[in-house]
Q: What sequence folds into this?
């Protein structure tokens, strides 16, 4: 498991908190909607956690601004991990 | 979590985008809504150009949920406090409100005209004499009727979610409706008079869905406001934010980014 996937997985667990009941490990293929059933307000908290962790290096809101709602709904953990890695490799 | 304390209450506030430019404040709808509906639609697109402020109304999302104090004027005071904490005192803002957020935006423009540069109402609820009693009747239902009302609302707003998530959200909505004075407070809030509406000096973009149950009242409202521009979005209901998301985002982006004096 990549370091970024591990970090994002930990953040997701923290965001979901007491409601966490996923018995499968989080992978690149895990979807935020269908698999994690992340509420949209929890996804906002995840965006905030990413900002706290990576600062201006990873512009998650800027990335969202390029996406249509249907794309956001279908996002997988791997999409976010790959975006973070791309930002960090080019900075 | 990004928090701002106003009047002793903790509010969940998100600030996006640059520091410079006309700030845009997004207001969400009532009960089954929170700031995320703007966070994942128009807000990031606007934040690419202008400062953005988003917050959860009291009792909603991740803001604190007091037992009382849900009148329209209480929420106007909340917004005022959040702007005072988030922006320079003399800075005028663009307000963009969905559903009840539109009603709140207009109430704020009436109370604090010096802070508002323009309004965008997205199928905004209209605070006329009938609004309070109707809301009380629909949200004050009990038993089976209430469950059916909640189920209908979820079908409209949250059709994408699983049953487990729907149950969690329904529980949360029910706690807000039955565990606080929200319904009573809003129902007893005094609507603006026709004379007050005629004094709204800022430009207003009023967007309504062709098939929205609020459309006719929205048209009447727009006719009373001196600088309102009414646009009907074809094929949409009250949920036009979800039905024509991309079109709405473009319209909001052009409106809030207009030059001063321009009609957008």
A:
């Amino acid at each position: 498991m990549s370091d970024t996937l591990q970090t994002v997985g930990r953040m997701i667990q923290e965001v979901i908190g007491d409601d966490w009941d996923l018995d499968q490990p989080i992978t690149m293929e895990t979807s935020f909607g269908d698999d994690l059933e992340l509420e949209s307000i929890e996804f906002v908290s995840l965006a905030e956690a990413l900002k706290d962790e990576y600062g201006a290096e990873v512009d998650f809101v800027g990335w969202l601004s390029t996406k249509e709602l249907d794309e956001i709904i279908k996002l997988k953990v791997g999409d976010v991990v790959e975006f973070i890695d791309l930002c960090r490799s080019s900075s | 979590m990004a928090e701002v304390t106003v009047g002793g209450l903790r509010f969940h506030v998100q600030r996006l985008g640059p520091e410079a430019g006309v700030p845009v404040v997004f207001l969400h709808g009532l009960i089954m809504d929170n700031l995320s509906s703007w966070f994942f639609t128009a807000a990031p697109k606007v934040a690419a150009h202008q400062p953005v402020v988003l917050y959860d109304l009291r009792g909603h999302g991740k803001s604190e949920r007091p037992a009382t104090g849900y009148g329209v004027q209480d929420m106007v005071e909340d917004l005022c406090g959040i702007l005072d904490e988030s922006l320079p005192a003399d800075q005028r803002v663009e307000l963009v409100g969905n559903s009840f957020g539109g009603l709140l935006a207009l109430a704020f423009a009436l109370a604090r005209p010096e802070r508002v540069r323009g309004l965008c109402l997205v199928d905004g609820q209209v605070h006329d004499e009938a609004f309070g009693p109707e809301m009380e009747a629909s949200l004050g239902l009990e038993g089976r009727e209430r469950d059916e009302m909640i189920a209908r609302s979820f079908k409209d707003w949250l059709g994408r979610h699983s049953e487990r998530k729907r149950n969690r959200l329904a529980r949360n909505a029910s706690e807000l409706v039955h565990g606080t004075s929200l319904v009573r407070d809003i129902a007893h809030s005094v609507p603006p008079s026709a004379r007050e509406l005629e004094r709204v000096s800022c430009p207003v973009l009023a967007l309504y869905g062709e098939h929205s149950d609020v459309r006719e009242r929205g048209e009447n409202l727009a006719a009373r406001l001196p600088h309102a521009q009414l646009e009907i979005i074809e094929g949409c209901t009250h949920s036009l934010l979800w039905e024509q998301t991309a079109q709405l985002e473009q319209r909001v982006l052009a409106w809030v980014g207009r030059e001063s004096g321009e009609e957008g």
